[in-house]
Each structure stands twice: as C-alpha cells, then as structure tokens.
Design brief:
Blueprint lengths: L1 E2 L3 H18 L6 H29 L6 H5 L3 H10 L5 H15 L7 H27 L1 E2 L1
Antiparallel strand pairs: 1-2
Helix pairs in contact: 1-2, 1-6, 2-4, 2-6, 4-5, 5-6
C-alpha cells in the first residue's frame, strides 16, 4: 500500500501560515494588510476544499463502493472521519465550523467576514497540520 501524497496540501498550509504571519506584522491601514488578508482567506478556502477531497480518499476502505464515498457531502466526510476514528469528534466539529464559516463567503466577502475568519486562522492552521499528518499516514491504493 502507498501513502497519500499531501505535498500540495502541505504547501497550502505553509503558504497560509506565512501569509498569516505577514498579516500580523502589517498595519491595518496599509495595502499590505489587505493583500495578506486576501491571501489568508484564499488559502483558507483552498485548504478546506483540498481537505475534503483528500479525506474522502481516506474513507474509501470504509464503504462498499467508491461511488458511495463520492456521494458524501463535505459535512458527511467529516462526520464519517470521526465515526471511523480518523479524527476526534471535537476536531470534526471544528472542521464543520470552518466549513460553515467558509459558506458565508459566498454571501459576504466584506471586511466583517474576513476579520471573523482571521480569528479562526491560528486554530485552523493547527487543525490543518494535524489533518495533513492523518491523511499522510493513511494507506492508499
């Protein structure tokens, strides 16, 4: 059995971590702050999408068919990950919260959304790193 390739996912986490550090070092009234804030939000979204796809691959051994796994919604993916002990229930709930936050971006790309998301980032980065390790350690065909 092979291990899943998480290179791109991990690179996105490192990019988010760097953008977040640069954001924190910027002044809110400068263009650099807005640029790093935008980078943080975009990486947040990319990591969320990637996490669901990668975790879905990890869940395949727990289902009778690949088609059954493909039908899972994002929230179902995380619920099943907790159910099959790929992550804790608490971690699953945090990822569901991140997804709820992301879903608001479709309706509110304003400063309020961005600032709320920025509060989540330190926790999100740690959860993403933990998830990357979980995914990387799963056998994969």
């Amino acid at each position: 059995m092979n291990k899943m390739d998480t290179t791109f996912f991990f690179r996105c986490i490192l990019t988010l971590e760097k953008a977040h550090a640069l954001l924190l070092a910027s002044k809110k009234d400068e263009i650099d702050y807005e640029m790093y804030r935008s980078a943080c939000i975009k990486e947040f979204e990319i990591i969320l999408e990637q996490s669901g796809g990668l975790l879905k691959k990890c869940l395949r051994p727990y289902f009778h068919t690949a088609k059954a796994v493909d039908r899972l919604t994002f929230k179902d993916i995380y619920r099943n990950a907790a159910k099959h002990d790929l992550m804790s229930i608490e971690a699953s709930e945090r990822w569901l919260n991140y997804r709820d936050n992301r879903n608001h971006t479709a309706h509110d790309y304003g400063v309020n959304f961005a600032e709320h998301t920025l509060v989540l980032l330190p926790f999100f980065i740690e959860d993403a790193k933990a998830l990357e390790q979980i995914i990387k350690d799963q056998p994969y065909d």
